Automatic annotation (TrEMBL):
Organism in which the protein naturally occurs: Kibdelosporangium phytohabitans
Keywords: DNA-binding, Transcription, Transcription regulation
Single Gene Ontology MF annotation: sequence-specific DNA binding
Protein known as: AsnC family transcriptional regulator
One Gene Ontology cellular component annotation held by this UniProt entry: cytosol
Length: 158
């Protein structure tokens, strides 16, 4: 797990920007981009991985091309706020592929789910037959996205 206040030099920051922009760059390409030789660049990448700053490498996929036409956020309130009830909800959510992200949140809701559906009918079926039956659900409110203006792709690098 990364420390709460990591210290990075300019080359670390450049390396993180480069990796976030294109994780397929070779060590030689990364080294050229951050103006360092290959061996020190490779060591920096390994250190960032070992320190838990770089947690993996993924391909960015287009959800629509995969057939997921609906993207929604569901604010969920649960009845019981004990650890056991929350864990049961979290484990149930983790098993559902259509729920692509889940956050524990403050405010009027307890959890915020990011959910995909093939179309409105399949989303409605999933919401009514699966999500409503998750353990401990008291209330849910869906917010449908109309347009993706700035989908999450990268974290800001200072």
């Amino acid at each position: 797990m990364p420390s709460s206040d990591p210290e990075f030099d300019a080359q670390d920051l450049a390396l993180l920007r480069a990796l976030q922009n294109n994780a397929r760059l070779t060590v030689a390409q990364l080294a050229e981009e951050i103006r360092l030789s290959s061996s020190p660049t490779w060591r920096r990448v390994k250190r960032l991985e070992e320190d838990g700053i770089v947690t993996g490498y993924r391909a960015a996929l287009d959800r629509r091309a995969l057939g997921w036409g609906v993207l929604a956020f569901i604010a969920v309130s649960i009845e019981d706020h004990g650890d056991e009830a929350a864990k049961a909800f979290e484990m149930a959510v983790d098993d559902l592929a259509e729920i692509v992200a889940c956050w524990s949140v403050s405010g009027d809701s307890d959890f915020l789910l990011q959910v995909v559906g093939r179309d409105l009918d399949s989303y409605a079926d999933f919401a009514m037959t699966t999500i409503r039956r998750l353990p401990g659900i008291k209330a849910m409110r869906t917010i449908f996205t109309l347009k993706e203006i700035k989908p999450p792709t990268a974290w800001p690098i200072p």
